[in-house]
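ARCHIVE CARD
Drawer: 12
Card no.: 0347
Subject: one protein chain, sequence and derived structure
Cross-reference: see card 0346
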Amino acid sequence: MKTLFKIVLCIIIVAGLVAITPYGQQLKARVIDVVNPTAAGRRNLADLKEKLSTISNTVNKPSFQNLSTTEKTKQLNSLLKDTTILVNKAEQTAAKSDFTASIGAGINTLVQKVISSSQNNNSSTQSSSSSCPQP
């Protein structure tokens, strides 16, 4: 009984530490991404919106307008590089989501075929028994 209590206590402590630390937050995000790929897609799209807003704000700043052409180009290239990375992540998430959806659709089709097949077998059994003459 003491051993079971110690094991449960250790699990609670480890879970608490994982939930509090930054590494635990990353782990939690990864688990959520695996379980629900659309959450990752939403997060990627939110990050992408934020980056596009940053680009827009940067371009519209008066201080940006006063920069030389090479400095403007450097800043814009840096922002566009970050945005491109986010777009690639969103594409990968969408591809994973499509793959998951395809597997789900295939399983759904298979289950529907099994159900309809079993219903056909049941109805043929019932119709043959109902066609028997009654005394």
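Annotation on reverse: The helical segments are 2-20, 22-35, 37-60, 62-65, 69-130. The CA atoms of residues 123 and 129 lie 10 Å apart.
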